[in-house]
Amino acid sequence: MQIRLCILSAMIFSTNVMAGIPEKPNFLLIVVDDMGYSDISPFGGEIETPAIQSIADKGLKFTNYYVGPSCSATRSMLLSGNDNHVAGLGNMDELLTSHQRGKPGYEGYLNDRVVSLGTVLKGAGYNTYMAGKWHLGHEPEQDPSRRGFDRSFTLLQGGASHFDDEWMMYANYTPTYREDGVRTHVPSGFYSSEFYANKIISYMEEQKDDKPFLAYLAFTAPHDPLHVPDEWLENKTWDYKKGYDKIRAERLSRMKKLGIVSDEAQLSPWVTGVPEWGDLSEDEQAKEIRLMEIYAAMVANIDHHVGRVLSYLEESGKDKNTIVVFMSDNGANGFDMASYPRTGQDWVDRNSDNRLSNWGRRGSRIAAGGGWAQVSSTPFHLYKHFLAEGGIRSPLIVSGPGIPFEGETTDALAHVMDIAPTFISLAGAKYPEHSNGNRLRPPLGKPMGPLLSGSSSKIYEADEALGWEYNDSKALRMGQYKATLTVEPFGNGQWQVFDVSVDPGEKNDLSSAMPELTEDLIEAWGDFANTVGVVPLEAAE
Hints:
Elements: E1 4-5, E2 26-32, H1 50-57, E3 59-66, H2 71-80, H3 84-87, H4 117-123, E4 127-133, E5 151-155, E6 177-179, E7 182-184, H5 192-206, E8 213-218, H6 230-233, H7 244-258, H8 282-316, E9 322-328, H9 345-351, H10 369-376, H11 389-392, E10 393-399, E11 408-410, E12 414-415, H12 419-426, E13 434-435, E14 438-439, H13 449-452, E15 464-470, E16 473-478, E17 481-485, E18 495-499, H14 515-532
Parallel strand pairs: 1-15, 2-8, 2-9, 3-11, 3-12, 4-5, 4-8
Antiparallel strand pairs: 3-10, 5-6, 6-7, 9-10, 13-14, 15-16, 16-17, 17-18
């Protein structure tokens, strides 16, 4: 079987504006942090998200959209159009081993082999704004203000308290905030989602010229620690007393009715090592219920602030020329706060006010955990930090002028690397061959414009493959098939093959029944690894 890796996307994207899509549109790019595939209402969730639903009702939902397994991996691909192993985040900076650190593609920041979407659009006459999580480098020269953004207010690290105390998320992980490249602090009364929405609105309001804009709104919610303003804490419109299994089943039923998954789809196997609902005591169940109520309130609060941004666009008339993109950076987080590097439960206990009455408030450090992360990933297996579908398949919604869809879904294979090429193409811009004396790696992603305009039903051909690697786990998607190797203890360390078009829960391993396909996919993964420069965690013995 001949398999083509997506490794030589055109360096200069088409400047032909797609039929119906205006020339040089504005772009509003909304990214939420660690939200699961099925949490929001357009994708079958019970959490009411009317603002996000309104984007879906006016646009197109992508059901086969892939991202990276972790925050910084996805963000490097989102802004560069290239694989994270090329762009500098072959592993998260926080997890780089001594064998990896400093090797090409493992710098721990957005490197000089790529330029950012902000840089390209700024060069094409756009105003460029960002508010929220950066996670692509800490040094001044790695700041958004040096990577193409005219205005920016960013948290440089992967997470922090969502309130104005600026508490570190875990041990020795002090948060750093900058505005336009200058060190700053958050104001009194700060709550992350509200503040970042306010900032992105203010940057758009302050614009006095008629240039188009890129507005990148990168929420840090619902990433742990789970925090939400008091008035949202008692917003209990959900019944989580049903437990994991019933919520998963209800979500799957709605997803089938919405066309998000096939009628044949089944729930994935329960994650090894995560207690099932019936194994929990009444007290443990009550705590789990409270965790999910707080998490759901965070998602609902995000939606409220997305609605405010959309209202600003409508009231200013800018919505008529604005493409809106909504996505999550990876799957839901299934680990507790003690699991972070150099932390442990003793540190969490000493440095947090985790009385049940204080959960979700200032000083608490809590996370949703593996049970609810599996629910958020319905019907997929596993979650963030894994290459199973629950870790790397994300909800994507695109709407705007010239996009002739109203609530439809597409199962076309798409990847986060496609976002930058799409914006660049629609802006009539060119991705440069060189920058600051460096020869740039051409983007691997493909423009989505033909699909968005309705002139095509696909982005990738059936024989084009997309690959992943994360901490020695491996995956490759080609057409309807996906090959994965998950390291122990969450996997058996062996290659498995699934038909994810009908088996998104990755239950039925086809590797023994289809040995030739399996070998072809494994070989294609090897080609991918060589092309992007994968470096294992440790040197080969």
